[in-house]
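I hope you will forgive my troubling you with a question about protein structure. The matter concerns a single protein, recorded as an amino acid sequence and a row of backbone structure tokens. Please examine both parts with care and let me know of anything in them that strikes you as inconsistent. Thank you for your consideration; the sequence and its tokens are set out here:
***
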Amino acid sequence: MSTRRKIPAPEANPETAAYWQAAASGKLVIRECSHCGKLHHYPRALCPFCFKPATGWREVSGRGKIYAYSVMRRAETPYAIAYVTLEEGVTMLTNLIDCDFDGLRIGQAVTLVFQDSEGGPPVPMFSPA
């Protein structure tokens, strides 16, 4: 089982403030464009697909599958960084926690967990489902 490492507090900006506020209330939200209908992550005011400033927030399930991952074993506290594809189709860069790094597999089902940061909002991460 992995040990949790300290996570610095994320810095919110006008584009990400609502994202971190949702995380503080235990919800994962991503941006959805009302012009082209596509979802995206990391939060941006302009849609990265059609470049329209017509994006809003949408709460997502918090369930996904590992698309790719890498275990950083030389770090002071080893950790796993991963791309997780959510059920909604968006792939996000995140960390895998509370797991056996040797047991991780591409395509493995994972579920959302929040890890406290140092003095900031909790950070969305994933652990095996």
